Amino acid sequence: MDETSRNSTKKLDIEGVRQQSVALRADSRAKESYKQIGDADINRNGTNGFGDKSSSSVSDKSLKMPRENGTSAKEGEDERMLNGGESGGAAVVARNEEPTEKDKLAQKEVEVKFISSPNGDARIDLEVESQQTFSGMTKEELMKYANDPFWVRLRWLLFVLFWGLWLAMLLGSFYIIYVADKCPAPVPLTWWQQGPLIEIDETQYESQVETIAQFGAKGVVYRLPADETYFIHSAPVKEKLEKLIATFRPKKIEVVIDITPNFVTADDPLYKLALEKGPNDPASKAFIWNDLATLPNWLSITENGSAFKNVTSTHAILSQFGPKRFDLQLNETIAKEKLKDVLKSLIVYGFRGVRLSNAKHFIISNSGNEEAMPSPEANKTLTMVDYGFWTHKKTSYQQGLGELFNELSSVVHGELQENGFLSVTEDILRPDVFAFNGTMPIDIPLYGNIEYDLREANNTNATKLRNDIANTYNAINDTCRCNPWLQLRYNNASLQYLGASEYTIFNFLLPGVPLFALDVLTANNISKDTIETLEKFRASPSFQHGKFAVYNDTSAGAIAYIRLKPGNPGYFVALNLDPNQEKVADFSGIAGIGAELTVVLTSNNYAVPDVAIKTKVPANAVPLSPKSAIIATYVPAK
């Protein structure tokens, strides 16, 4: 009993608890803790130990301490519940001193646990609150360093560095935007670039409207009789043209008109005025006059003999295109304004495209004889009376054609913007002559040997066709530094070697607009589904804005080209010109082509077993039937 008494009267070692919790900070929450029981309290009522009949309740941490004489202390007399910081803080205040480290530690929360054992002993555990969290320095502690010179300088240094770097990044972004290549958003193709365009006949078009619409034509091309070009204001011609527009407009099909502006007939008012006034009148400058005594050796295009017709006893006027047709000098103001008036009137009628015939003859030299064709180029069967014997440098491809077409194109685009176009009906042959200030004022020019090579493919190999296609587009690109967009015109005469299906499939995805007569489709078993599929391909980003490149396979026996815009599937179009032999062509050398191609369209002659729509074929072994074409898609290789 003496040992139990000594344990119960032993002072609680608060100093030991303080040493264990130097690193912990005081929690702001007010919790209850037990105050140490002093000697006076222990010895109160004359006892220094616990009675044998002691009891404890651990659950509510309330301990009843009986005296030796059996009397019980008042509840709470042997222990006192105080606020954790009360005693220490009060002591400091009482001393009127700065709190010491021990005083601060005394404010730490101490948890007292009374644990009873089976033999009647009681054990007391003291624990400092262990779940405290680090909350950083207080405001008062931080303010001690607010005006410290080191920290003031450091703050200013970081402030300057932050805003300096921010300003540098801002200026850098502006500089990158300024020097970076401009990448304008791709402009959607206009209706006349999308195509196809179908040529119509004046006597049949009314019965063809529905069929033309079913084939998805964006426009039709009507050829106005040449002699009516400058009579479009006459009632019969005007009525005919307005009826044509009214026929196709409900189907949302635009109408293009072909005119022949390089000559007028004998009934034209301007010709009559010039003839009346003579060669020295301003109206006469619209024509090419010459003295009868010094006529050059120019020959008529449509007749035998001289290109000049006598109109007075001393003078003749140039008439290359037949009787009662007199050539205009279209770089002269009076003739040029006459043509501009026709263009404006056609736009008012509702035409959205104009093609001009005989473009190379719009400007004529005033004098001088023609030279014979150079010997290497001359046809040995021709003589001096034949038109082809001469070079015709005086009556064609004169300087100034580019400037003239630029003015005429401005009239059309000034009225219609990009919704209309101005083009030509014949191969321009010399694109450099028609260029103006680095541009090509002729929309969708007709140029190159593509149609000829496909028509005469029995005398053409795949290598020549590839070279001619590449040279055609390179020549236009070198002339105007633009993406060439050509007229891809063909007709039944073009199908001498290839079938209509093969020709159409190979032709449709070249950069340009297909132009053909309706009977090319209807008379050659070209289905509407085929044309619809091709038009869907033409609407893809890879066709409208993608790269174009043409290739031969490794054996140079087949030809193919690709259309590809980054981020989109590529299109692969291949053609086998061989009339007898099936080829397994290797096109794996094409830069960026995928290992596999997915077939999406085949021509009528394609008859490779086990190859159909959606079939995958390897790029290094593309099977091609004789005289057949195929279109496939591919995922570009990285």
UniProtKB/TrEMBL annotation:
Highest taxon of source: Eukaryota
Keyword Membrane appears in the UniProt entry: yes
Gene3D superfamilies the record matches: Glycosidases, Oligo-1,6-glucosidase, Domain 2
Coiled coil (residue ranges): none
GO biological process terms, semicolon-separated: carbohydrate metabolic process; L-alanine import across plasma membrane; L-leucine import across plasma membrane; phenylalanine transport
Record-annotated membrane-spanning stretches: 156-178
Gene Ontology molecular function: alpha-1,4-glucosidase activity; aromatic amino acid transmembrane transporter activity; L-alanine transmembrane transporter activity; L-leucine transmembrane transporter activity
Domain Solute carrier family 3 member 2 N-terminal: 121-198
GO cellular component: apical plasma membrane; basolateral plasma membrane
Annotated keywords: Membrane, Signal, Transmembrane, Transmembrane helix
Region feature Disordered, mapped onto this chain: 1-86
Pfam families xrefs: SLC3A2_N (PF16028)
Name the UniProt record assigns to this protein: CD98hc amino acid transporter protein
Species lineage: Eukaryota, Metazoa, Ecdysozoa, Arthropoda, Hexapoda
